[in-house]
Amino acid sequence: MKASARSFWLNAISGAFVGLAEALVDTRVVMSAFLSLLTDSNVLISFIAPMREAGWWLPQFFVSGWVERTPRKADLYRATNLWRIFSWLALIACAFTLKGLPLLLAFAICMVPISIGAGIAGLPWTVITAKTIPPGRRGSLFAWRNGLASILGIAGGGVIAYILNGGLGLGFPQNYGAVFAVAAFMYVIGYALMGMVQDDPDVPPAPSNLRDQAKRALELVKTSHDYRWFLISRSLISLGYACAPFFAVYARRELNVSGGQLGSFVSVSLVAGLIGNWIFGKIGDSRGHKVIFLFAITCGIVMALDGAVLVATRFMPELQLYAAYALSGLLTSALAVSFGPLMMDVTPTENRSLYYGFTHTLLGISVIIGGFIGFLADAVGLTWLFMFSCVVFAGSLLAMAQVHRFPAKSIHVAATA
Predict the structure, then answer these.
(1) The total number of structural domains that make up the chain
(2) Full residue range of the structural domain in which residue 48 is found
(3) What's the CA gap between 40 and 47, in Å, rounded?
(4) What pLDDT, on a 0 to 100 scale, did the predictor assign at position 24?
(5) What is the mean pLDDT of residues 190-204?
(6) Which runs of consecutive H residues, i.e. helices, occur in 37-173?
(7) Do the domain assignments include residue 204?
(8) Separation between Cα atoms, residue 122 and residue 135, nearest integer Å
(9) Of 81, 179, 194, 404, whose Cβ has the fewest other Cβ atoms within 10 Å?
């Protein structure tokens, strides 16, 4: 097998197992439901998804210089994943031994290294992927990663339903601890497979401090109209999507849905994403990824409207919840297939670590801001929270309308001027 094909399939299958693990501990369904049984605070619940996402985005600019100076990025990837696994093991132990407030505190403490570790490992992963996967195959890679993950995740939804419905004879919180344990095992397999990708050493650039790196990154923002509006649009998506955990919260608190039905929500989301993945990957490689990105925003608008109607009317609530999770699956899938390739296409090859890190850190700030949406839920209720998200998604669509094209050549020139 050629090295490029080997890297493609190791990356894709790794993504499948990591995606299965992410489905098992889905922040917008499983984790939100878990926290809703530990606290009545909408603010605390609203921060779980931003905590995980901000942990991925925020650290990357600050470690970009370190990553740039490391010849083999895979070494950083493997080392960081070790502490992520140890943190999951600690959380599992806490779920089997603690209850109430001590468990809530332990959960918050364990989530910090898990989330930050994802961000630190994510930057070398992105660089390795850009190095080993040709531009014409990147859309297909993300489609395969997400598609295979969705197939496994459908089974994962069954695992969630089985365990949370008492299939192992475990009550709360041990039943969630068992779900976390299965997820941790899937993470180990996924990390190990990605660690086998051949990573040829890079020539380290000249040393630079954080201020110099910020100047170089800001130059790209100043000189590229399209890149600037693209960042604004993507940041607004993160803010709008902060409403998603409240579908599970509403279902548990107001509709008293069972843990098994929560698992079915995960499955519906994954099936929708699976269907979308194959379509989005082919369209992205043939017609460009911007159209897929626009579709993701449209799904967000409809999903938020669905949430507002659900809470305001309670008309056929189960059907509206399934529709919301289907739209969420399509949004996540379209975003996963389009955003990564767009970033890889528009950033200069010689400064990938810097520009990926800078972009991801800016998005991390928007994710943290989204975490405060819980205050809005407490102040005005879920109907207006969903309407707010709808307006934010619409703003993202308007921002993306300002992006005319992604001219890689002109951006490369601007970045090195």
Answers:
(1) 1
(2) 3-197+209-416
(3) 13
(4) 93
(5) 85
(6) 42-46, 48-57, 59-69, 73-97, 100-132, 135-164
(7) no
(8) 19
(9) 404
